[in-house]
Amino acid sequence: MADTATTASAAASAANAATDAPPFQLGKPRFQQTSFYGRFRHFLDIIDPRTLFVTERRLREAVQLLEDYKHGTLRPGVTNEQLWSAQKIKQAILHPDTNEKIFMPFRMSGYIPFGTPIVVGLLLPNQTLASTVFWQWLNQSHNACVNYANRNATKPSPASKFIQGYLGAVISAVSIAVGLNVLVQKANKFTPATRLLVQRFVPFPAVGPAGDGTDSSGPAYAHPGASPDCHVHAGEDGSLAGAPPAAPACAKPRVPGSLRPGPATGYQPLPADVRD
């Protein structure tokens, strides 16, 4: 029996060395957070769209593997790579507070594939009044749903505040976008080519004010991949400070929080939402 255990331990050590995976730590980030590269890789892990295709069976296996590790009943031969992969899957799909599955379009790993078409819609040329209103409304609605789905469920906030923030974000974004489009159309000094170019930049000022309500004094929201005691804060408008970018086209001119230099403990706040 002792020989068998020794052999299994040696095999596990060899496998871990082969994959070059760091020693597993439950609830901790896989990559060092004291360097830009480590924070960048951690961010890529969080938004990895491959986790959208994880089957129900694979999710159950990942959760069970982590439970076995937690209770010290892990079977011999399990590698660090397998444990990190299991944790990545669980954190990408299940809410850290409720342990319930997050609807796929509202997961952080789904923010780019589901959000990019909206960004493309925002940047379409020659938009009508109706199309401008529609894309701005859809953009703010998607952001609000992502924020709500990843909220801190341990500190519930009144629904009225969320609705108030949502309406404020939609109204401000739509008003600015429509107003700027009207001004551009009435600018007689612009050539058709210049007018088209200027219209392409209308989404930038339109989506900016909708996200400026982010405030550290607002209600806390859970960020995916974090333990229940690690949260980021959002303003009462529902804009999550930890939402990742949908596309560079509508990025705000600021450095994502999780990529700024300096040491950090545990999980880093995700990069600021670039669309609202």
Can you tell me about this structure?
The protein is mostly helical and 276 residues long. Helix content is 48%, strand content 2%. It is built from 9 helices and 2 strands. Strands 1-2 form a two-stranded antiparallel ribbon. Strand 1 (220-222) and strand 2 form a beta hairpin. Helix 3 packs across helix 4 and helix 5 packs antiparallel against helix 6. The longest helix has 28 residues, at 159-186. The protein is elongated, with a radius of gyration of 22 Å. The N and C termini lie far apart (60 Å).
Largest sheet strand order: 1-2
Q: What does the average pLDDT come to?
A: 74
Distance N to C terminus: 60 Å
The outline comes out as elongated
Series of secondary-structure elements, N-terminal to C-terminal: HHHHHHHHHEE
Q: How many β-strands, per DSSP? A: 2
Helix content percent band: 40-55%
Helical stretch count?
Answer: 9
Strand content: under 5%
- For the report, how would you describe the main beta sheet? 2 strands, antiparallel
In terms of topology, how is this protein built?
Layout: H1 2-19, H2 36-46, H3 56-70, H4 80-93, H5 111-122, H6 129-149, H7 159-186, H8 192-200, H9 203-207, E1 220-222, E2 231-233
Antiparallel strand pairs: 1-2
Helix pairs in contact: 3-4, 5-6, 6-7
Keywords summarizing the entry:
about 280 residues, mainly alpha, two-stranded antiparallel sheet, 9 helices, disordered N terminus
Describe the structure in brief.
This protein has helices at 2-19, 36-46, 56-70, 80-93, 111-122, 129-149, 159-186, 192-200, 203-207, and strands at 220-222, 231-233. It is mainly α and 276 residues long. Helix 3 (56-70) packs across helix 4, helix 5 runs antiparallel to helix 6 (129-149) and helix 6 (129-149) packs antiparallel against helix 7 (159-186).
